[in-house]
UniProtKB/TrEMBL annotation:
GO terms, biological process: regulation of DNA-templated transcription
Lineage: unclassified sequences, metagenomes, ecological metagenomes
Pfam families linked: PC4
Residue span, Transcriptional coactivator p15 (PC4) C-terminal domain: 14-63
UniProt name for this protein: Transcriptional coactivator p15 (PC4) C-terminal domain-containing protein
Length: 71
């Protein structure tokens, strides 16, 4: 089961969603994914656009994001 950590509205039709949780037999995973509004407009659905990685990589991911502050 994936737990939502947060989200960022990208447009009125899409948002980025960050989740963490166990995925199948792969252990704990982090997922940052673009979601778009359904055709009915009452919910958001995940797209193929995003990244999905082991939580073991989180310290390295944070280092990379922190370097963006220096650019």
């Amino acid at each position: 089961m994936m737990k939502k950590i947060g989200e960022i509205e990208v447009t009125d039709q899409s948002k980025l969603v960050l989740t963490i949780g166990e995925y199948k037999d792969q252990g704990e995973r982090i997922d940052l994914r673009l979601y778009v509004k359904s055709r009915e407009g009452d919910s958001y659905i995940p797209t193929k656009k995003g990244v999905f990685f082991s939580s073991e990589w989180l310290p390295h991911f944070i280092e990379m994001v922190d370097k963006l502050k220096e650019v």
